[in-house]
Amino acid sequence: MNQQVKKGRLFLIPTPLDFGCATEAPLADVLPLHTVQTASQITHWICENAKSCRAFLKRVDAVAPLALPLQQQNIAELPREAHKKGDHNPQTTSNSDSSALLAAALQGHDVGLVSEAGMPAIADPGSSVVRAAHDAGIDVVPLVGPTSLLLALAASGLNGQNFAFVGYVPSDATERSARLRELEQLALRQGQTQIFIETPYRNQALLGALLQTLQANTRLSISSGLTLESASTQSRLVKQWKPLNTSLDNRTPMVFAIGR
Asked: Is 1 domain-assigned?
């Protein structure tokens, strides 16, 4: 009689928020030791980008030695469709691709899911893998680490009891202005804080659109460099932002929030 193989677990491993930034935060300052130690013992990985995954594992190894050398780690990337279109919609994401990535877990190995920054599957790809794990009876274990959206919300002074993350706003100027007005009406009418992000090189353009489009008494919060020594959150009314002629760093990821 064949004994059934005990399934491994899917660990959701947060990574530092300094991806793409000029400086890095010490790993011990932004990730609990338990998270780092757990990551060090995993040898099978599903990631957004193999290069950034290896860079993260190098940082882990400096704190807690890896169970296998970096060259022997099993690293698989999410499909390109997950980057371009997101993988939160079961109708547009291949279940077979996600299930295939979990083959090691079905064979008894723990598997780590990572994104390039923050918590995987939150404002990043990974939800299709989590769904596939649940469907396959694989335990999903989220670990503690920084999530930029919640850090920015907490520091904003905006409503933390009712909020929504809406992803990216359109890059087309006309569409962007229309979307910002729509989000502002939601924020003012329902008291629901609206949180969004942008590709860093568009930070300044987005700020300009916000100041041109939003009402004078709408509160705008901008967080940058979270968890770094250079971390900053500025939160003020639009009419208070306008005289400042603020210049944003177009290389640093930022989180924008509006509300009342």
From this structure: no
Give the SS3 label for residue 22: coil
Residue 216 to residues 169, 192, 240: CA-CA distances in angstroms?
A: 20, 18, 8
* 2 in any annotated domain: no
CATH number for 199: 3.30.950.10
Q: What's the CA gap between 153 and 9, in Å, rounded?
A: 31
Of 142, 170, 193, the one marking the end of a domain is 142
- Taking the whole predicted model, whether its pTM rises above 0.85 is answered as yes
Q: Write phi, then psi, for 193 (nearest 5 degrees).
A: -60, 135
Does the residue 5 lie in any domain?
no
For 110-169, how does the pLDDT look when each residue is reduced to its tens digit (9 = 90+)? 999 999 999 999 999 999 999 999 999 999 999 999 999 999 999 999 999 999 999 999
